Amino acid sequence: MLENNIKALLEHKKPLIMAHLVLGFPSFEENRKVVDEMVNAGVEVIELQIPFSESWDGPVILKANEEALKNGTTVSACFDFAQKIVKAYPDTIFLFMTYYNVLFAQGVEAFAKKAKAIGIQGTIVPDIPPEEGKEYIAACESAGISPIFLFTPTTPDERLKELCAYSKGIAYCVGRKGTTGIKTNADDSLIELIERYRRSIDLPIALGFGIQSKQDFDAIAPYIDIAVIGTKLLIVQQESGANGVGLFLKSLRQ
Amino acid sequence: MLENNIKALLEHKKPLIMAHLVLGFPSFEENRKVVDEMVNAGVEVIELQIPFSESWDGPVILKANEEALKNGTTVSACFDFAQKIVKAYPDTIFLFMTYYNVLFAQGVEAFAKKAKAIGIQGTIVPDIPPEEGKEYIAACESAGISPIFLFTPTTPDERLKELCAYSKGIAYCVGRKGTTGIKTNADDSLIELIERYRRSIDLPIALGFGIQSKQDFDAIAPYIDIAVIGTKLLIVQQESGANGVGLFLKSLRQ
Amino acid sequence: MEDTERGYYGQFGGMYITEILNVCIHDLIRHYKRARSDASFWNEYQSLMMSYSGRPTPLTYAQNLSEYLGGAQIYIKREDLNHTGAHKINNVMGQGLLTKRMGKKRVIAETGAGQHGVATATMAAKFGFECEIYMGEIDVKRQRPNVFWMEKLGAKVNVVKDGTKCLKDAINAAFRDWSFSMDTTHYVLGTACGPHPFPEMVAWFQSIVGMEARQQVVAETGKMPSRIFACVGGGSNSLGIFSGFFDATSVELVGVEAGGLGLESGKHAARLVSSEGKIGVAQGMKTVFVQDNEGQMHETHSISAGLDYIGVSPILAHLRETKRVRFEAATDAEVVEAVRLTIRKEGIIPALESAHAFAQAIKEAPKMKKDEIIVVNQSGRGDKDIFIIADALKDPEWEKFIIEKAEAYNAGK
Amino acid sequence: MEDTERGYYGQFGGMYITEILNVCIHDLIRHYKRARSDASFWNEYQSLMMSYSGRPTPLTYAQNLSEYLGGAQIYIKREDLNHTGAHKINNVMGQGLLTKRMGKKRVIAETGAGQHGVATATMAAKFGFECEIYMGEIDVKRQRPNVFWMEKLGAKVNVVKDGTKCLKDAINAAFRDWSFSMDTTHYVLGTACGPHPFPEMVAWFQSIVGMEARQQVVAETGKMPSRIFACVGGGSNSLGIFSGFFDATSVELVGVEAGGLGLESGKHAARLVSSEGKIGVAQGMKTVFVQDNEGQMHETHSISAGLDYIGVSPILAHLRETKRVRFEAATDAEVVEAVRLTIRKEGIIPALESAHAFAQAIKEAPKMKKDEIIVVNQSGRGDKDIFIIADALKDPEWEKFIIEKAEAYNAGK
Ligand SMILES: Cc1ncc(COP(=O)(O)O)c(C=O)c1O
Ligand SMILES: Cc1ncc(COP(=O)(O)O)c(C=O)c1O
Prior knowledge:
- The complex is a heterotetramer, with 2 copies of chain A (about 250 residues) and 2 copies of chain C (about 425 residues).
- With about 250 residues, chain A is an alpha/beta fold.
- Helices cover about 50% and strands about 15% of the residues of chain A.
- Chain A is built from 11 helices and 9 strands.
- In chain A, strands 5-4-3-2-1-9-8-7-6 form a 9-stranded parallel sheet, with helices on both faces.
- In chain A, helix 5 (about 100-105) crosses helix 6 (about 110-115), helix 6 (about 110-115) runs parallel beside helix 7 and helix 8 (about 155-165) packs across helix 9.
- The longest helix of chain A has 22 residues, at about 230-250.
- Chain C is α/β, with parallel strands linked by helices and about 425 residues long.
- The N and C termini of chain C lie far apart (about 60 Å).
- In chain C, helix 3 (about 65-70) packs across helix 12 (about 330-345) and helix 12 (about 330-345) crosses helix 13.
- Chain C has 2 domains: about 10-50 and about 85-200, Rossmann fold, CATH 3.40.50; about 55-85 and about 205-390, Rossmann fold.
- In chain C, the strands form 4 sheets. In chain C, strands 3-4-14-9-10-13 form a 6-stranded mixed sheet, sandwiched between helices. Chain C has a 4-stranded parallel sheet with strand order 7-6-5-8, with helices on both faces. In chain C, strands 1-2 form a two-stranded antiparallel sheet.
- Chains A and C meet through helix 3, helix 5 and strand 6 of A and helix 1, helix 8 and strand 11 of C.
- One pyridoxal-5'-phosphate binds next to helix 5, helix 10 and helix 13 of chain C.
């Protein structure tokens, strides 16, 4: 389903924008405003991160995870919120991003089924490589949502191909080593990396590379299918609120 | 010389009193007053302790040693003072008490000669056993002063006899284990100890046993030749001055 | 142990890593496997530990303690006599040799109590590696002496202010560093946790403890011990000594967790013996964690920083299921009492971590027969813990000393 | 050594004791001689040291330091890896065995830095003896951690407020105690000083260091070392290692005294290399003391409490005269630098005392040939010195930590 939806969108627009937020940070009300701004700015895919106490993200997202948990954000509240928001914005693609223990704690199959039931189209779980993910992959498949694996600069060509066998809908490609939130220069070596991804990956390529500005976006836009924007949005949100997020996202395509 | 002098005195009076003071504590002026009181109280023998930084005495005498040194008391000043005092009280027997390093530092022979020259009749040096004291004994002999060794409760009979061969004039007998300043009960076991000393020692017996009062003195007086009074006098001096020392000493024979 | 390819022990273990680290960890596995099958590597390791760290560490007969308790004869495996004062150095020097083989020039490590940080900084100084240590802000505060030595040893200590600001957050931070730096850097994980091959590899380096202990106890007493006690933080010292006796089924292996203020208090670090310990996936492994029903990890508590950890080695989680190891917990109060008794009876100061093993042995020894033998693994020495032990024993002279020191510093500035 | 009856080494040594101790000391001599001529005693001693203290201690090749200095190859004898962290335990356990033989039930000891006090309290706990330690008031103040451990080990620590309130006064106080208590009590003197048989006896127990070192250096390098460096407080660790090489005349033995603020400053503890060191008699022995012309002892100074002593072993005074040992001094500043360098290059923290030996070796090694071998005796580990090293290195974070600790204590009361 995700793959078809993405491909359909890509026929009209390229690159798509995939925007990220952390559920419960700073609050669900704020999340709702941010989603609204994102949708109004034309964002096609929204990545809802369910906070986890052992996140391996970079400092900005990590902090947001912590704050959300400190505010008492529970996984079940995230599901409730997601259900409402998916219903409210039926034309937007929503994904869950979280860590494997969140799935594991309630049962991977239950998680996938519930996600599907509320209209989530895919899940990004960075700490479950496909080799550990048999149960996860099977659960996604039987529930009918797409497991989205990560492709990284350190992944050899051979393995890029292997990973494609497990990934559905999107190839979530990482623009540089390290965790989320670090800026990558949109230089020749990044373009070479994308070309390497292209050669081995037959899925739409979503690239996360620490986009900071329209300039970054423009430099890389011709080469990719989906631009992932994460950390920058959290920063903007903290500096100038949901409204700022909307303005920033709109600016990218102006 | 010391032996004859002591014996001559013992023909008239028994026990003799041997009183102790620490030179330079609290000052030479005070020392002079104390000696004057001692002589006036009828003390026959006065033990002048030259202070030493590594004294092994008990706390009261130790403290007096430290204070004297802190006041800048030097060994040569002690000699100067002793010279004057011996001249001033020609009928009193004066002894030096100190530790071996004080002799060693200026040469044992020089020390003995100088002591003799100023009229000192004997020396008590607790940390020089006769086995280490060949040079010391020879120096005393050639200078004509008496080396006075200690006899203690732990000394076996055999050794008591041996020590007599080195000691001249007085056998300085210790009433109990430990250092100076601890009171010994004038009980049966002390009298037994004195009897043991008597059996092996053919010198006049001076006993130091932490005498505190006339009662102590009376209890032991019949058994000994010389009563050594040390720590108590320092305490009296600090409580009630030279005058107090005189009163205390006079009280013993009243 | 089923799937050695990905380091599974029953249902536990695995490699729950982000894709970015995949190649790096496989590279490590390759080097580790090569080293493991190369006898000369172990020889090099052993002779390094002999000449640098004082191995073999002795097995000391605790005669007074045994007589006082009136039951089993107690022997103490003296990991406290290692260079840097704990078993941590065994693992660290082994990984140091491996780092050299991999041609890497930089090491990073997490640390809780600071013992593993000091050991890693020591190894880095010895091998000439650049070194950065991740340490939670709370641990930095309570373990300043170790921070001081790490810095003097040339390491950079990065204060981790995320999450609970403790060991688990330091581990997360180290993984974050590693996902940038894996080309030049080896992550020296400090215990038998994390993704494969760490649990197996760390347990292998620590197995030197068990090999020695078995040989020593048999040579000394002519028979096998009835029980072996070891404290369980991440699991490295316990696996180290237990591994020498796995095949001797008559030997009961007892792992002792931090009972903190009691298992009912919610303030403990008991993963394997408390109801808060549930199977989960974090920090690269599937194992038992202290967590809530939604998979969020709890804050743990122990008087000993080294046992104050949410997870536990997957190998131990498996050994609980197979019942090869029995698990118990000792409370902070029992531990302080065990320290007091061991010092007085044997002149030996156990680390607060190790004192958990002592506390359990002290509970069980009196009920055992006089001809039975107990081995307690003293994983480290306790003088490092003076700030905590002095507080636990409420020593007023110590407080006065610190206050006077502080006044002098305040005056000096 | 001329008169072994009374322990003379040339003109030095002897038994300058008060008569009250005469029998007691001769009793000790008798037991000591019997033990010395009884091979089973040494075997018992050696196996106790193996099983309790981790002997033999290793000899560590300091490759980085050697390469950095570019001269002789430096090996470190690792007495720091002993139980309680220094060579002091060698002497103490030996005297403990002797105390048992003498049937005594109480031990007393002086201590300066506190190392010997901790070692003695440890031995007393192990042997079940009553224990009292004499320690100068100033040392109690600056070495509180050691006082804390002595007390936890069950010893009573008597604060000595006499004289300079330091080591020498603690020795005097211990002799005072002994002259009451000799029937039940053994005085465990902490170094190769005092009346016979202490210098010889302590040197004998410490000779285990030299025996091991010689065997180890030859086994490791195939030849004899050119020079051996050891710090000199009372002299026990230096005599311990030197004694293994006395007959090997090609081996130069170098004793390093505490140069303090410099030999011209009057603030040092250099007996054998300064003009303030003169022959004298005190503390039971004839040897060289820092004293004035009238025989009064001076206050000494050193950054390391363990070298801060007025006297020196008569055996060493004699070895200076026979020129078998060369003596040097290292200043406080050189010592701090040596600590810094040794930590960084080798991951080893020498005690400030031992760092004197390192400082001298660091001065001489670069001028030696690459195929020459140096052995440095690391008499103890430096983590006990954290309060002093942190001050010497002026660590602001440490000061902050102490100030915060103090504030917490102040608030808690
Ligand atoms: C002395 C000591 N023992 C035990 C532990 C616990 O770790 P593990 O369970 O890996 O042995 C630590 C950890 O810091 C430690 O320092
Ligand atoms: C570690 C260490 N080294 C050396 C010394 C000096 O003593 P000695 O000269 O007897 O070895 C001391 C004394 O406390 C010490 O603690």
